Amino acid sequence: MSTVKEPETWQQLIADCSDIPHTLEASPAVILPRAAPHWEVDETCEAQVADLDEYV
To answer: What distance in Å separates the CA atoms of residue 16 and residue 7, rounded to the nearest whole number?
Structure first.
């Protein structure tokens, strides 16, 4: 079993990134961000920090 060594310098990191296949770089699924789901703070969540002045 082989292990992958983490890059220790910026040069090693850049060299590792140059090995990314061009087909992956051009994939729209990778490039385009997805819309975040809408969320709201409900009363239950707000009640958890009601006594903490720095959060209100």
So the answer is: 8
Q: Please tell me what DSSP assigns to residue 2.
A: -
What is the phi-psi region of residue 20: left when phi exceeds 0, alpha when psi lies from -120 to 50, beta otherwise? beta
Mean pLDDT taken over the chain: 78
Q: pTM above the 0.85 mark?
A: no
Rounded to whole angstroms, the Cα distance separating 23 from 29 reads: 11
pLDDT score at 19: 76
Round to whole Å and give the CA distance between 24 and 30.
7
For 10-54, the DSSP string reads HHHHHHHHTTS-HHHHT-HHHHSPPPPPP----HHHHHHTTT-GG
